[in-house]
Design brief:
With 305 residues, the protein is α/β, with parallel strands linked by helices. It is 38% helix and 15% strand. An 8-stranded mixed sheet has the order 3-2-1-4-5-6-8-7, with helices on both faces. The chain binds beta-D-ribofuranose (BDR) and calcium ion. Beta-D-ribofuranose binds next to α1 and α6.
Length: 305
């Protein structure tokens, strides 16, 4: 497929080990072009997530501009996931420090201005807390028409990881998530119910490690770091590759089964407060072909340097 037939995507993220994978496979795929990256606080603080985004993009050879976003959630207390991703969010000695700085420190206004100028609506991939996107939709509701879909990792149809009920990205800013879900923009959700089906088991990590390029072994090492906590905390046979599910679905949607559902985030009063009949607002991924997912991921990583 020629580069001209690629779909431009905007990428809002908090790298993060699995965010780094998502960026890398999006870059490696001929179907997608990362047009710009916006960063959010999340796994660690904004300075580190922004630095990590720059590191990863440099390393994979992407020239997408990076715009740093919000420092914290709309209303709730700050949480982080340094316990999962390490103090800097990306404990990956194989990924050097970046050679350049963010293009701006105002992701929200960048997105508003950019979306207002594009002629074709854009897909936004969101792999962190949804604060930047909620602010965009509140400050400039007109740009909703310029967003084709928001494909996000967050939530769950069953249990949580940050609490028994809540997934980390949703828990980081439940109000922002609810603003996005009720914005009228098409949303596609990759929650824990599906991302916990794509575990980087030892044979899958070994397949990455055996790749002849530089990227495969570096990603294998990062997954080794991620694996310990998933084994200790969940008894899983490998870490879950949450964020790359969003990108894998854009590249090969047949790997996933989705269903249109009503998704709301409990922001205070409980989901049944004032409830009446509500229409579906989100395509929710329910099942994934995990072997197919890892075949795609490993093939795309093999195309990196
Ligand atoms: C989500 O939380 C973060 O730690 C991961 O990067 C992913 O986006 C999983 O709950
Ligand atoms: Ca993330």
């Amino acid at each position: 497929m020629s580069r001209s037939s690629t779909a431009p995507v905007l990428f809002d993220c908090d790298p993060g080990i699995d965010d780094a994978f998502a960026l890398a496979i999006a870059h490696a795929s001929a179907k997608l072009h990362i047009e710009a990256v916006t960063t959010t606080y999340g796994n660690v603080g904004l300075d580190n997530t922004t630095n990590n985004a720059l590191r990863v993009l440099d390393w994979i050879g992407s020239d997408a501009p990076v715009h740093a976003g919000v420092q914290r959630s709309l209303l709730t207390k700050k949480v982080d996931a340094a316990g999962y991703h390490g103090a800097t969010g990306l404990e990956a000695p194989g990924i050097p420090q970046p050679s350049h700085k963010p293009t701006s420190g105002d992701a929200v206004n960048f997105l508003i201005d950019h979306l207002r100028t594009v002629s074709e609506p854009r897909t936004i991939v969101a792999t962190g807390p949804l604060t930047n996107l909620a602010m965009v939709l509140r400050l400039a509701p007109d740009v909703a028409d310029k967003i084709d879909q928001i494909v996000f990792m967050g939530g769950s149809t069953d249990y949580g990881n940050d609490s028994p009920a809540a997934e980390f990205n949703m828990m980081s800013d439940p109000h922002a998530a609810q603003i996005v879900l009720e914005s009228g923009v098409r949303t596609v959700m990759f929650g824990l119910n599906v991302t916990h089906q794509v575990l980087a088991t030892p044979p899958r990590i070994a397949a990455l490690n055996d790749l002849a390029n530089n990227a495969g072994p570096v990603f294998a090492q990062m997954l080794g770091f991620f694996a310990d906590i998933y084994r200790d905390q969940y008894g899983f046979d490998g870490p879950a590759l949450h964020d790359p599910c969003t990108v894998a679905w854009l590249i090969q949607p047949e790997l996933f089964e989705t269903e249109l559902m009503r998704v709301d985030v409990d922001t205070a009063n409980g989901l049944s407060y004032g409830r009446s009949v509500q229409s579906p607002n989100c395509a929710v991924a329910l099942e994934v072909d995990a072997d197919g997912f890892f075949a795609l991921l490993t093939r795309l990583v093999s195309q990196l340097n």
